[in-house]
Design goal:
Layout: E1 2-6, H1 10-19, E2 24-28, H2 32-41, E3 43-44, E4 48-52, E5 57-60, H3 63-67, E6 72-75, H4 79-89, E7 95-97, H5 110-117, E8 123-127, H6 132-137, E9 141-146, H7 150-160, E10 165-170, H8 173-195, H9 200-220, H10 225-228, H11 231-242, H12 247-256, H13 261-267, H14 273-288, H15 293-303, H16 308-316
Parallel strand pairs: 1-2, 1-6, 2-5, 6-7, 7-8, 9-10
Antiparallel strand pairs: 3-4, 8-9
Length: 323
């Protein structure tokens, strides 16, 4: 199969390395200077240093060239850039969204945005507990490929067969997408717990209650409860809240240590989607009339200047209730 990967960050490069074991892969990198350097050196020294790209990976700085003869396009760019790229992919090529975020203005998931931009498009979404570095290293990884088109999900599943990523199919793309986006907000909270020096009790409470509010919102918006209990939900939430490679967890830790959000974000090479998603989550929660206390406190810390310890106290002092 000829596969185009749209986005040459760490995750896009890791997916290229994985799929090149079985397929011909075009890797589109937006930055032309970086694309030229990667093409020459065969290493993405900015986003995934230390991994040599095999000859089956063809580095492109032209999106049109990357998509030429592609039988599958995998979209792996920050959510804020997806809309401008989707219209350039055009009809006919099945699309896999591997972006874990929501569009800030429309509050749409990536699959909703693709369906709006390309009527009749064959769309699936890829998500689950999958740090790029571990995938690039060849560590066994399990994830979910979800689509309203069962045959497309199976096609993508077969494309990954024989690699270090084992895919499970799902017919709940919305549940998978909301899980992948919203867990990043909870991961910021996990980083705050770590930055405040709190122990395992606090982390376990945050993850469990975070899953409860993510599930409430995702189900209110059309997702299914069982999806949130699986790889795309609980699996990805645990990884992002506990793993040292989590960018969103890093943001929370730095906030707890007293750094300003603007300074943290400006110093990061890669995007922490949870910062933008926090605003979107609050707007969706208001629209669906769903209570999300942890997300609300993350919004207060990120955008309203509330000190992290005060946010923690507010959560502990909430009205008592049953689980």
């Amino acid at each position: 199969m000829r596969i185009a990967i749209i986005g040459g960050g760490s995750w896009g490069t890791a997916l290229a390395l994985t799929l090149a074991r079985q397929h011909e892969v075009s890797l589109w990198i937006h930055d032309t200077a970086l694309a030229a350097r990667v093409r020459e050196s065969r290493v993405n020294d900015v986003y995934l240093p230390g991994f040599a790209l095999p000859s089956r990976i063809h580095v492109k700085s032209s999106l049109e060239q990357a998509l030429e003869q592609a039988e599958l396009a995998i979209l792996v760019v920050p959510s804020e850039h997806c809309r401008s790229l989707i219209s350039r992919i055009g009809p006919g090529i099945p699309i896999v969204s591997a972006t874990k975020g929501l569009e800030a203005d429309s509050l749409q998931t990536m699959s909703q945005m693709i369906a709006e931009q390309i009527p009749g498009a064959r769309v699936s979404v890829l998500s689950g507990p999958s740090f790029a570095l571990d995938v690039a290293r060849g560590d066994p990884t399990a994830a979910v490929i979800a689509s309203n088109n069962a045959e497309l999900a199976k096609e993508v599943q077969r494309a990954f067969a024989g690699t270090n990523i084992r895919l499970y199919t799902s017919s709940d793309p919305l549940g998978v997408e909301y899980a992948g986006a919203l867990k990043n907000v909870i991961a910021i909270g996990a980083g705050i717990c770590d930055g405040l020096g709190l122990g395992s009790n606090s982390q376990a409470a945050l993850i469990t209650r975070g899953l409860a509010e993510i599930t409430r919102l995702a189900c209110a918006l059309g997702g299914r409860r069982e999806t949130l209990a699986g790889l795309a939900g609980m699996g990805d939430l645990v990884l992002t809240c506990t793993g040292s490679l989590s960018r969103n967890r890093t943001v929370g830790g730095e906030l707890a240590r007293g750094r300003k959000l603007a300074d943290i974000v400006s110093s990061m090479r890669m995007v922490a989607e949870g910062v933008r998603t926090t605003r979107s989550a609050m707007a969706l929660a208001a629209r669906a009339q769903v209570e999300m206390p942890i997300t609300a406190r993350m919004h207060a810390v990120l955008f309203e200047g509330q000190p992290p310890r005060e946010a923690l106290r507010d959560l502990m002092d909430r009205a008592l209730k049953s689980e």
